[in-house]
Design brief:
The complex is a heterodimer of chains A (706) and B (56). With 706 residues, chain A is an all-alpha fold. Chain A is built from 27 helices and 4 strands. Chain A has 5 domains: 155 residues; 101 residues; 179 residues, Cytochrome C Oxidase, Chain A (Up-down Bundle), CATH 1.20.210; 34 residues; 171 residues, Cytochrome Bc1 Complex, Chain D, domain 2 (Orthogonal Bundle), CATH 1.10.760.10. Chain B has 56 residues and is mainly alpha-helical. In chain B, 55% of the residues lie in helices and 0% in strands. The chains are: A mainly alpha (706), B mainly alpha (56). The interface between A and B is large, with 61 and 39 residues.
């Protein structure tokens, strides 16, 4: 067999590496800003673009899809070529993938601060961007599978399996969760409503953690740790077993994000069972990564790359131990809605994803630039600053989460809430928020040092854009006679063909039938629950736009401590008109599901203008622009029509008269405010928001009053 | 709660897809040797030397 000469494309790897660093710096800086806003509300700068509710989605999207996303592609494009002994399938596809992904990120950076959001966590980008993501993801898959098909190494190394699972599952998750009905160019409503939307969203959310932050990085771990340590992985057999176990278990664990909510109990239990089982394959991976260094721990002392990789895998082990524990209902009852969860995800994000990325960068850049790292000392500084940063970040937040949750649940001997004022529990954890910000500063400082170090390394290095290699081609299993149609290959495999067509048909059927099923099941189960009035609907869209869900939940769990504080617990039937659901996942402020009718309109007016006038010491930002902006009533008919399409029972032709109803209601609220001595035009956005806030949770309030 | 059944259906589809991939891997003999690949991936850079230059 004759050796074939070819070359590896290093340029695309370099581009993704630079993008990883740049977006990492930006995403983490925005995260630090968000952290500081919780301590110093003045840092919201009193503009809509820079307020926490819009900054927080920008941070999460930037670090997940921009920093980690580019990190994945950097590692995949480097390792896949070498594992397949083949250049990437097509250089043009690589370029489209790279620039397309950067454009998507750029559009996120522009749209999220503008308040263009679907209001679904980690899937906030609006529908045109969702479509772009799908297309670019297909380009990535095309390029990857093309490379795999033309590989010169028959065996698919375990890392490649992780990349394949990532591609397939992320595609399915993204498409299913992004079912939405466009109302205008930058506004859409989730196809699902209420409980169903919540379930789909957290099925997506959990699997995004699984298949975007975990499986691709495990693949990278299986390539870069053996490479950096120059020794084979501890047990290749274990890597195969834990891969298959992991991907089979992960897709069922999503409901653990919805424990004690209105989701059916059996679904909650199913999620818990699979989450507990997940500990086995997760730790299989961690053990395999760490034991790869057996007998070589002396190298870890010397080699800064290995230091980063070891801490990364350790953080993975901690986070995947904690995850199943948090899925236990009794632990979840304490941890959910608190900063404990924020600490948990940051052990994963800063430790596992961050440190693995840094380790790979420190290994990859000198290799591609054919030089030594500019400064090992600076890299060590980065390592220690980063490690301390993680500790300073996580420990205070664990403390804060635990303490605040216990305060929420504490009763006096008379059986009354010990801390009935939510704000009291927030003030208690302010020092921890400050400490967490210091952790963030340390971590970010490390990344800045790394950027300088890599910049200097690049400057002194000599980049090899196309690395030459040679390998024997794969033996063909059959002899083709001349050029034949590509379909012949599939035709020779009847069973595979059948399965493939079955899958294709099922996908088609699912796409066709799902919307019908879902609309039928949106018929209200509680008679007193009525659709939102046009003004309330507009107000709800403002609630979504401002990202209120990043700090306020709309889900009162059936605990005595919650019903005593907020009111009757939330029922599934109350959310049937909520496109999207807004249950939230974190209570930096109190739950709002029963806020309706709790305070007069004037309270909300003053509170939104300056929260500290109504609640001294509040860290909620001011929303002054709501008092200046006129409500966009031009969109009302289209929004009502969209809701009718989604199965909301407005009367036929209601879209034409919706604005009359809207004016009526806003005039009433303006008149109501006037009684309390507040002069405002009824056309302002704040009036719509007040209408929504006063409506929330009132549908069944009367029935349950004792 | 039809979304539940939809999600279970789709998750099952994904799982079946993975199962097919697993069976394919087994039948193709991907896992007959569960040691050598871990060593082989370490040796791929024999050609890499610093005399290579950037040529088109």
């Amino acid at each position: 067999m004759e050796l074939e000469k070819f070359s590896y494309d290093n340029k695309i790897v370099k581009q993704f590496a630079y993008a990883t660093i740049i977006w990492g710096l930006i995403g983490m800086t925005v995260g630090l800003l968000a952290a500081l806003q919780l301590v110093f509300p003045v840092l919201n700068f009193n503009t809509s673009f820079t307020t926490f509710g819009r900054i927080r989605p920008l941070h999460t999207n930037a670090v997940i899809f921009a920093f980690v996303g580019n990190g994945i592609f950097m590692g995949v494009y480097y390792s896949l070529q070498r594992l397949c002994k083949a250049r990437m399938f097509n250089d043009t596809l690589s370029k489209i993938h790279f620039w397309g992904w950067q454009l998507i990120i750029l559009s996120a950076v522009l749209t999220l601060p503008l308040g263009l959001t679907t209001g679904k966590e980690y899937a906030e980008l609006e529908w045109p961007i969702d479509i772009a993501i799908t297309l670019i993801w297909v380009v990535f898959g095309w390029n990857m599978f093309g490379t795999i098909i033309k590989r010169r190494e028959r065996h698919l190394y375990v890392a490649i399996w992780f990349y394949i699972a990532t591609f397939v599952t992320v595609a399915v998750l993204h498409i299913v969760n992004s079912f939405e009905l466009p109302v205008s160019m930058f506004k859409s409503y989730s196809w699902y409503a209420g409980v169903q939307d919540a379930l789909v969203q957290w099925w997506y959310g959990h699997n995004a953690v699984a298949f975007f932050l975990t499986t691709p990085y495990l693949g990278l771990m299986y390539y870069f740790i053996p490479k950096a340590a120059n020794r084979p992985v501890y047990s290749y057999r274990l890597s195969i077993i834990h891969f298959w176990a992991l991907i089979f278990l992960y897709i069922w664990a999503g409901p653990h994000h919805l424990l004690y909510t209105s989701l059916p109990d059996w679904a909650q239990s199913l999620g818990v069972v699979f989450s507990i089982m997940l500990i086995a394959p997760s730790w299989g991976g961690m053990i395999n990564g760490l034991l790869t260094l057996r007998g070589a721990w002396d190298k870890v002392r010397e080699d800064v790359v290995l230091k980063f990789l070891v801490v990364a895998v350790t953080a993975y082990g901690m986070a995947t131990f904690e995850g199943p524990m948090l899925s236990l209902k009794n632990v979840n009852a304490i941890a959910h809605f608190t900063d404990w969860i924020v600490a948990h995800v940051h052990v994963g994000a800063l430790g596992w994803n961050g440190f693995l990325t840094f380790g790979i960068l420190y290994w990859l850049i000198p290799k591609m630039f054919r030089t030594e790292l500019y400064s090992k000392k600076l890299a060590n500084w980065h390592f220690w600053l980063g490690t301390l940063g993680i500790l300073f970040y996580a420990i205070p937040l664990y403390w804060a989460g635990f303490m605040q949750s216990l305060m929420w649940k504490e009763f006096t001997e008379e059986g009354l809430l010990k801390y009935p004022n939510f704000l009291e529990t927030v003030v208690q954890i302010m020092p921890m928020y400050m400490a967490r910000s210091i952790g963030g500063v340390l971590y970010l400082t490390g990344v800045i040092i790394m950027t300088y170090n890599i910049f200097k390394t690049v400057k002194k290095g000599d980049f090899l854009a196309n690395e030459e290699a040679e390998a024997a081609p794969l033996m063909k299993t059959y002899e083709a006679h001349g050029k034949e149609h590509w379909h012949r290959v599939i035709e020779r495999r009847p069973i595979q063909l059948m399965i493939l067509s079955l899958v294709v048909i099922l996908i088609g059927g699912v796409i066709e039938m799902v919307p019908t099923f879902l609309i039928q099941s949106n018929v209200p189960t509680i008679a007193s629950v009525k659709p939102y009035t046009p003004l309330e609907l507009q107000g709800r869209d403002i609630y979504v736009r401002e990202g209120c869900y990043t700090c306020h939940s709309q889900m009162i769990r059936p605990f005595r401590s919650e019903t005593a504080r907020y009111g009757e617990y939330s029922k599934a039937g109350e959310f049937v008109y909520d496109h999207p659901f807004q249950w939230g996942s974190k209570r930096t402020g109190p739950d709002l599901h029963r806020i309706g009718g709790k305070y007069p309109d004037s309270w909300h007016f003053n509170h939104m203008l300056d929260p500290t006038t109504m609640s001294p010491g509040s860290i909620m930002p001011s929303y002054t622009w709501l008092f200046d902006n006129d409500l966009d009533t031009g969109s009302t008919p289209a929004k009502i029509r969209a809701m009718i399409t989604l199965g909301v029972p407005y009367e036929k032709g209601f879209d034409q008269v919706a604005n009359d109803s809207l004016m009526n209601q806003s005039d009433r609220i303006a008149a109501n405010l006037k009684k309390d001595g507040i002069e405002t035009l009824s056309t302002k956005e704040i009036v719509a928001l007040i209408a929504y806030l006063q409506r929330m949770g009132t549908d069944i309030k009367g029935e349950n009053k004792k | 709660m039809s979304a539940l059944y939809v999600l279970i259906g789709i998750s099952l589809l994904v799982a079946i897809g993975f199962l097919c991939a697993f069976l394919w891997a087994m039948r193709k003999g991907q896992y007959e040797d569960d040691y050598t690949p871990s060593v082989r991936m370490l040796f791929e850079d024999e050609l890499t030397d610093n005399t290579q230059t950037n040529k088109k």
